[in-house]
User: Which sequence fits this backbone?
């Protein structure tokens, strides 16, 4: 198995399929404890608008964390979700603490970022656009600390290695960059 496939598996490959294409992943979380918030309206079962097979179930895990179960119609995947606020904008940091034991070498656990545009009446989300990020890093390798995994630069998986404060500065710097947050999708409560 290629290093790229191992990282994607470790980084919730199910969610990558959900959002189509590769996802921007990070070794460090995108949030710090002071940024975390909780929105009770998210608790419950949701369906992706236009795809009845795709289901998202948010349950309260801790004081300010969610357990998210994502179902694509064939399989279900569980992950931790932290809703957090940077300035006036909400985000989700998704993380799967349980890695498959049968992969060697074991994959590095990574965090995925979703921007939350609205919570009511539907949840509207967008992932940080991987293609945009790859083009930005190709043009300006110093834009954010990262590591490319894979032998072929065209097919390499980019993993962000910046620490949380640097990640947050990067995200805030690109809040108004439309290409960074294109292709939002919506969830409606069942």
Assistant:
């Amino acid at each position: 198995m290629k290093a790229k496939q191992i990282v994607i598996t470790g980084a919730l490959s199910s969610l990558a399929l959900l959002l189509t294409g590769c996802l921007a992943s990070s070794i460090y979380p995108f949030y710090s404890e002071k940024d975390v918030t909780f929105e009770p309206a998210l608790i419950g079962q949701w369906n992706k608008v236009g795809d009845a097979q795709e289901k998202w179930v948010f349950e309260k895990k801790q004081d300010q964390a969610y357990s998210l179960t994502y179902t694509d119609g064939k399989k279900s995947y569980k992950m931790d979700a932290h809703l957090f606020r940077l300035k006036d904008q909400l985000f989700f940091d998704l993380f799967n603490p349980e890695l498959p034991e049968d992969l060697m070498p074991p994959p590095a656990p990574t965090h995925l970022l979703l921007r939350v545009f609205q919570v009511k009446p539907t949840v509207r989300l967008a992932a940080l656009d991987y293609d945009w990020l790859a083009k930005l890093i190709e043009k300006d390798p110093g834009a954010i600390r990262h590591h490319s995994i894979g032998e072929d630069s065209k097919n390499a998986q980019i993993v962000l290695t910046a620490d949380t404060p640097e990640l947050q500065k990067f995200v805030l710097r690109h809040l108004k960059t439309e290409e960074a947050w294109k292709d939002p999708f919506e969830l409606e409560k069942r």
